[in-house]
Write a structure and sequence with these properties.
Blueprint: H1 3-9, E1 15-21, E2 29-34, E3 43-44, H2 56-68, E4 71-85, E5 96-107, E6 116-121, H3 135-143, E7 148-154, E8 160-167
Parallel strand pairs: 1-5, 4-7
Antiparallel strand pairs: 2-3, 2-6, 4-5, 7-8
Length: 173
């Protein structure tokens, strides 16, 4: 199946996840090295799986506190990312609908946890080769203050087969 077919077939039952962008007034962004679990060995933003009894915003505040030891507040939605996996059986449920927010405020300085090792990065030094394939295509517009919706079809080996990015609107299907 191609990306369009995945979008039609898997609109319901996708795992809901979050990512949160913490940015200093100087423009630096906080990324963290994932130390364990899904995405281990990659740089990423804070975030995680939305629990049944919480909103994406509540999830992101909880996850960022757990992973970085800081509280994000005044969250601004900046995107929704849809990740589909071509070679993973649907019962394993790797497909994700990821809500992306930027925090206007962050209480405290990000600290290392058992799961994440945070570090501040200048925009021109963001380690895209050590991140998820295709991250640069959605992160750069967001850092330029644009909102977006992204659709990505991956293999289980982190190879992007197709992508579509819609700049200027957040589509919450």
């Amino acid at each position: 199946m191609d990306l369009k077919e995945h979008r039609r077939a898997y609109t319901k039952g996708m795992k809901k996840t979050t990512l949160g962008i913490i940015r200093k007034p100087s423009g630096e962004v906080c990324l963290a090295m994932k130390k364990r679990g899904f995405g281990a060995g990659k740089w990423n933003f804070s975030g995680g799986k939305v629990l049944l009894d919480e909103t994406p915003e509540q999830c992101l505040v909880r996850e960022t506190k757990e992973e970085f030891g800081v509280k994000m507040s005044n969250l601004r939605p900046v995107g929704v990312l849809y990740f589909y996996f071509s070679d993973v059986p649907i019962e394993k449920n790797w497909n994700q609908k990821c809500y992306v927010f930027e925090a206007e405020n962050c209480d405290g300085e990000p600290q290392e946890s058992e799961e994440m090792l945070p570090k501040w990065w200048r925009r021109d030094a963001i380690p895209y080769p050590k991140m998820w394939q295709e991250d640069e295509y959605w992160i750069e517009p967001v850092l330029d203050e644009q909102v977006l919706t992204g659709y990505f079809l991956f293999t289980s080996r982190d190879v992007c087969l197709e992508k579509e990015i819609v700049i200027g609107k957040i589509i919450d299907e």
